[in-house]
Amino acid sequence: MKEYYIILMLLVATDRCTCQDCECPLQQCPDGWTTFRGSCYYVSDNVSVDWTEAVHHCELHHGRLVTIETKEEDSFIRSHLERLYRQSNQHVGEEFWLGANDQMVEGVWTWYTNDQPLEYTGWYPGQPGSEGDEDCAVIASRPEAGGSQKFNGWHDAQCAAQHHPVCEISHDDSLPIVGRK
């Protein structure tokens, strides 16, 4: 009888993460996502899309395009990307979309989720540049000796360019179970 109650308690405790219409607490990131300080992150390296499609891609995964709000979070994202592509020729020199843009007012970079100006930035020296139509932010990789890559900072890029999304589910968001990937 004691085992029955323990199993029942476990089922009740996990039910909110297995039922059809519930939401999971953020302590449990979806498969393939990585956690850091209460948020979950997903690098979509198999998808190369323009910035608007990157936003939609993250929404399909029940997240949003990453908003990097602290130096620690920026360091984590860069380190995570470097670990993912340490011994790989994949994505050498490629860029990964961030959730910042200056589409509303040239030179005023905001997060697309709330139109608030960026308080923290991780721009590469000389960035954002002043070349033409570069209104969306990316984090860029550059090859290093030995074949590894260094994600050295943010750059502005044309929003129509094809890059890989980095998605985030923050502690303010909830994780719907249905359709999680």
UniProtKB/TrEMBL annotation:
SUPFAM superfamilies xref list? C-type lectin-like
Q: Which residues form the C-type lectin domain?
A: 36-168
| InterPro entries xrefs | C-type_lectin-like, C-type_lectin-like/link_sf, C-type_lectin/snaclec_domain, CTDL_fold
Q: Where are the transmembrane segments?
A: none
Q: What is this protein called?
A: C-type lectin domain-containing protein
What PANTHER family would the database entry show? Answer: MANNOSE, PHOSPHOLIPASE, LECTIN RECEPTOR RELATED
- Keywords, comma-separated and alphabetical: Signal
Q: What does the record list as coiled-coil region(s)?
A: none
**Keyword check for Metal-binding:** no
- Quote the CDD domains the UniProt record gives: CLECT
